[in-house]
Amino acid sequence: MSILENLGTFLENKLSRGQCVLIAGDHSPASRCLIKAICGQLAQFDLEERMIERSTSTALLSYLVTKLDLIDMGVMVDVS
């Protein structure tokens, strides 16, 4: 099983249908590609995904998840 499939299974077990995941990453093209793949996994589980379009930090993602009532979980993609 790939890391992407493991992440999808983890999110499916932790969240229920209709909940929202906020996905952020760094500025690399590989990060953007992985974010799109994660969004595809979430769509299979009927989970809503939102993506931060620009590069962001883990601290900002954590702040947004804890302060926004619409977000149930955050995923940070950092390709280095």
Summarize the structure in words:
The protein is an alpha/beta fold. The protein has a single domain (3-77), classed as Response regulator (Rossmann fold), CATH 3.40.50.2300. The protein is built from 3 helices and 3 strands, in the order H-E-H-E-H-E. The longest helix is centred in the middle third of the chain and has 16 residues, at 29-44. The model has no long low-confidence stretch (mean pLDDT 84).
Task: Report the CATH topology name.
Answer: Rossmann fold
Give the percentage of residues in beta strands: 15-25%
**Structural class of the secondary elements?**
alpha/beta
Oligomer state of the chains in this structure = single chain
Give the CATH H-level superfamily.
Response regulator
CATH class: Alpha Beta
Order of helices and strands: HEHEHE
Number of strands: 3
Number of helices: 3
Largest sheet: 3 strands, parallel
Helix content: 40-55%
Distance N to C terminus: 22 Å
The stretches of 5 or more residues where confidence is low (pLDDT under 50) are none
What characteristic shape results from the CA principal axes?
A: globular
Number of domains: 1
Strand order of the largest sheet: 2-1-3
> In CATH terms, what is the architecture?
3-Layer(aba) Sandwich
Radius of gyration of CA atoms, rounded to a whole number: 12 Å
**Mean of all residue-level pLDDT scores:** 84
Essential attributes:
globular, three-stranded parallel β-sheet, alpha/beta, 80 residues, 3 strands
